[in-house]
Amino acid sequence: MNHVASSQTPTPARGARSRRACVLFFSVAAATIAGCGGSDDDTAAPAPGPVVPAPPASTASPLTLSVSTPATLNGTLDKAAALFESNSSNDVMTTFNATDNHCRVGAYALRNSGDGTLYYLEVSFRKDTKAAGFIRFGRDAGLELLARAPAPLPGVVVDIASRRIVFTNVVVGATGTTTVTVNGSLENPTNIAPENRAACG
User: Fold this and answer.
1) What are the tens digits of pLDDT across the range 33-72?
2) 3-state secondary structure of 30
């Protein structure tokens, strides 16, 4: 009987395979340690801390009234000829027994392009958090109060560095007969006592 030679390659013995695997394992491990740096005097660099972006600087924009009741109040308030007052105040949000924990910025003689009348706008905010406590809006003549908005007022941003208050869709007087929605910015000049400028602008 003729025997046909097998074309299969002989399989290495089990012991040889095990030795080869061990050599390969230790070679890879040694290369990994060398790549990572195994010296005793190597010091791992501390992980970088989180990067907190600086808040964007506010920009000046026209101070407008819209969605107003009555509609004649809709218009732009002229800041150029307005009179400003900015000071430290005990005009607090929830209690009246604290002293000088708030700032108050008032703009008076704001002429409205809608009806030609002079109005005023007052904003009170906390010294520590800069959160707005309330807004008052009214006629400049006799300081007649027309509308008021209490805290919270997330649409009001106080920028002390720029001495600017920014309004974004802030509804004043939602429960009264007079209602205005304020947008834009109000820039208050530095006209308060120097010791209060860091907190109030």
Assistant:
1) 444 444 444 555 556 655 545 556 689 999 999 999 999 9
2) helix
Residue with tokens 């340690």: 33
Domain boundaries, the chain: 63-193
What phi and psi values does residue 197 have, to the nearest 5 degrees?
A: -65, -35
Alpha-carbon distance of 153 to 133, in angstroms, equals: 7
Which token pair is 90? 């005990």
The reply to whether the predicted model has a pTM over 0.90 is: no
Query: Of 74, 89, 42, nearest to 192 (Cα)?
Result: 89
The span from the CA of 168 to the CA of 147, in Å, is 17
State the Cα–Cα distance between residues 148 and 178, nearest whole angstrom.
Answer: 9
What is residue 181's three-state secondary structure? Answer: strand
